[in-house]
Amino acid sequence: MEEGQPPRAKWHGPVVLFVSIVVCGLLAFAWLLPSGATTADPDPTVPPPVVVTPAVPVQKDPPPEPTPPPLPPEGHMPSGGVPGANVVGVDCSAVPCVALTFDDGPSTYRSALLDQLKALNVHVTFFDLGQSVAARPELLARSVAEGHAVGGHSWRHGDMVKAGPQAACEDANRTRNAIKDASGVDSPLVRPPYGAWDDAVLAACTGMTFVLWDVDTMDWATHDGAKVTDHVLNDSRPGSIILMHDTVSEDIAALPGIVAGLKERGYTLVTVPQLWAAPLETGRAVFNGPRATKN
Ligand SMILES: [Zn+2]
To answer: Phi, psi at residue 42, to the nearest 5°?
Structure first.
């Protein structure tokens, strides 16, 4: 036994063995633990796990429902499908009627013209260009919704005689379809641009009625509301179809005087289809309605 050394206890050996086993066991346990399981810090060599977010569909507004074209007001659709007739129960073979017509629209003046016509409680007939209908379909839809009659005036103001029967009628049908697309109305009415038509064109354009005029206001040439008014009031007769233009803004201001003057002279203002009691026959050209006797 060495000097200064405490005597070893008899329990020393077993305890050392026990502690050694426990320490080794703990070390082995720690070594077997998966990497990272004992630390909160991520291993910089391991890329962070990709977080997969459940796919949430992007909420988009559903495509708008196509707006159906407005239907003509109750009572505005006559037999024969020509809108604008029967707005009022009038027999134009018994009472003197005239029909105001406006060509070359729908122009940018159409809204103001419709406002004026509504204020005057007058219904007219529009002969519109296919290209303008395609550009401003809402104006055509409004025209029909407010009780006016519509017809075609070629796609872009083409001369039907110069085009020849086949091309002229294809053009007229294209315009008719544009009007139908914009307003829901399938109108057989056609006003040949420049009043240019012949029997061959009329015969080729099956299912259509050519609507000419017997009063020419010359509004496109004068742009003078007073002169336009004089033409209408001096030249109209019972059954007259009066030619004006959607593109002449001076007509809008002249309308109150024109309407008042016609009414003073005993005329009822109607649309072109209303001039006849029965639906207009197709395959014919008309210049005026019935010439009722004027008191
Ligand atoms: Zn024209």
So the answer is: -75, 150
